[in-house]
Amino acid sequence: NPTARIRNFSIIAHVDHGKSTLADRILEKLGAMGERDKRDQTLDTLELERERGITIKSTPIRLNYVRDNGESYVFNLIDTPGHVDFNYEVSRSLAACEGVLLLVDASQGVEAQTIVNAYLAIDNNLEIIPVINKIDLPAADPESAARELEEVIGIPAEGAVRASGKSGIGIPEILEAVVERIPPPPGDPAAPLKALIFDSFFDAYQGVILFVRVLEGTMKAKDGVRLMNAGKNFEVDKVGTFSPGLVVGEELSAGMVGWVAAGIKDIQDAQVGDTLTGRDRQTDEAFPGFKPAQPVVFSGLYPTDTEDYRKLRDALEKLKLNDAAFSFEPETSEALGFGFRCGFLGLLHAEIIQERLEREYDLDLIATAPAVVYRVTLTNGEIFETQNPAEFPTRDRIEMVEEPYIKLSVMLPEDYVGPVMQLLQERRGAMQTMNYVGKRVELVYEVPFAEILYDFHDRLKSISRGYASMDYEQLGYREGDLRKVDIMVNNEVIDALAVIVHETKTYSLGRKIVDKMAEVIPRQMFPVPVQAVIGAKIIARATVKAYRKDVLAKCYGGDISRKKKLLEKQKKGRARMKQFGTVEVPQEAFLAVLSTE
Ligand code: GTP
Fold first, then answer.
1. Which of 157, 169, 399, 496 is deepest in the core (most CB within 10 A)?
2. One Pfam family name from the record (predicted)?
3. What is the 3-state secondary structure (H, E, C) of 547-572?
């Protein structure tokens, strides 16, 4: 069996449970470069990713492991993104493996992401090797952590390996467990080609580079191939493996993990989850579970300086080259002028794109509050989807509105169950299950996605003193009694500030927005009214008080450095303002709906 000496696996864990550190240690042990060095040298992984300490793009690596008895193995370690926005990518990366190391921090125990990730592995029929990590910590309680895994996920506690990525304890045991417990990949190299795309990136010279797991068959340069879901044919230029970086090879055959360049120009044609097969000799069925990348959170992005419109469009096009999950289309706002409606996988994805536009492309942007996609049935029977509150129809035209729901899992110490349940109730959540895990509780709720988009995670963390963790998956659409709240500044509706909100919350949200706006809009020579309205009805009102003294008057003349700072601050602030008549509205005001307090 040609694949008997191959092991394809991944490491999954809750954020901060030590995935990167353990991966580094394994790489070091097997004579490869540390994960972080590798990232610096190979695929140009995002600077942001490093700064934020989360993995966004998965980069596989190929390692050689020689057992004490001299047997040599090839390990393909497939990294997975560490955030719920990218859970589909995680599930496809796992589909490329036969097993996983499931890490649990011995001082923290099972967390929400541990559970969700474990189920992704179970759904893919993977062998799970539980690893109780960070056992060097004084607060480590490996017994409890192992017991929790057994109770919550049903993974036998005695199979758990105890390890520390920091001190290196347990690394040899982990490597042996990979060989012994994870099965070699199945598949017939002579069968028609069937390869799963689990990631891709755009290279200016070679076009889209696909990261693939070959399930059946063999592929080499000059072969004609077909992307089954995209329905497009290509010719293979090069294939290879990761070692680290892209190493050109002769061929890829069943069981192997590697990369393919096939002159693919558009990343939309090469989506994660699609199946690559032979152009002339096709496999019977595509690999199951393909989902086209689908943005679920939308926000308007506008240049603060209208001159920058083209620059913004060019930048969006460049980012799009490398990101099939990101979408944009031109949009016009009465208030903000020409900009783009952009679609993202979640809030983190949105933040990453915005930060990249600002840092790498040097753009100053106004971003409107993120919104989900609503499905509206009109009284004339027509159904349309909208992710732009400004386009939401008036009430007399609406028969029914539906909004996306998620299944949310929260893991928390039992002391905080009361307040967290109350928070979930406020967010229109419906409890599905409640499981005790030692002194902790797992709550599963169905909640409207829009309710957790804004400040939910921060609120959850603050009321649980940082102890609660969460993860979620999309559920589909449900009916909701939703209204559009418009915001007026100086008696004019600013379309880009409109929000969609549940009927029970229009007053409280309207209040919050106008108060926040009155706080952040700079004072004028005259008082400026800020109002929240539904149709013609005013539901909340606040006033930006008239301007009194020069801002520098506060400085008593003497302190030059302070004066400078203040002026600089003003200048910076001004860069992110939009002028409405005589009133300047800063970026912060557009996100007033997101503010906590
Ligand atoms: P994401 O990439 O965000 O998912 O995080 P991660 O799971 O990769 O965690 P990472 O390896 O970055 O470690 C998180 C923190 O835990 C860091 O501060 C590490 O130094 C620390 N850490 C990781 N492994 C160990 C360990 O075995 N023992 C101790 N004491 N600390 C560890």
1. 496
2. GTP_EFTU_D2
3. CCCCHHHHHCCCCHHHHHHHHHHHHH
Name, in order, each residue with C-beta under 8 angstroms of 70's C-beta and a sequence gap of 6 or more.
none
Q: Whose CA is nearest to atom 28 of ligand 1?
A: 134
Q: What is the mean pLDDT of the chain?
A: 86
Average pLDDT over residues 120-144: 94
Residue 466: which region, alpha, beta or left (left: phi > 0; alpha: psi -120 to 50)?
Answer: left
Give the sign of the dihedral formed by CA 421, CA 108, CA 58, CA 276: negative
Prediction pTM value: 0.81
Predicted local distance difference test score (pLDDT) of residue 113: 87
Q: Does 45 belong to an annotated binding site? A: no
pLDDT > 50? residue 396: yes
In SS3 terms, 310-339 reads as HHHHHHHHHHHHCCCCCEEEEEEECCCEEE
Using DSSP's 3-state secondary structure scheme, residue 117 falls into helix
Instruction: Please tell me whether residue 410 adopts helix, strand or coil conformation.
Output: strand
What crossing angle do the helices spanning 347-360 and 309-321 adopt, rounded to 10°? 120
CA-nearest residue for atom 14, ligand 1, is 16
Q: Give residue 66 CA to ligand 1 midpoint distance, Å.
A: 27
- Residue whose pair of structure tokens reads 């933040």 in the numeric block: 351
Q: What is the pLDDT of residue 542?
A: 92
Phi, psi of 461 (to 5 degrees): -65, -40
Find the residues whose C-beta lies inside 6 A of ligand 1: 13, 15-21, 53-55, 82, 133-134, 136-137, 164-166
Q: Which of 197, 229, 226, 221 is nearest to 210 (CA)?
A: 197
DSSP E strands in 304-439: the ranges are 327-333, 337-344, 365-367, 374-378, 383-386, 398-413, 430-437
Structure tokens at 43: 């695929």
| 10 Cα–ligand 1 center, Å | 16
Residue 128 bridge partners (DSSP):
100
Residues 518-563 have pLDDT tens digits of 888 888 778 889 999 998 899 999 998 876 555 544 444 445 555 5
β-bridge pairing 99-105 and 127-133: parallel
**What is the interface pTM, i.e. ipTM, of the complex?**
0.97
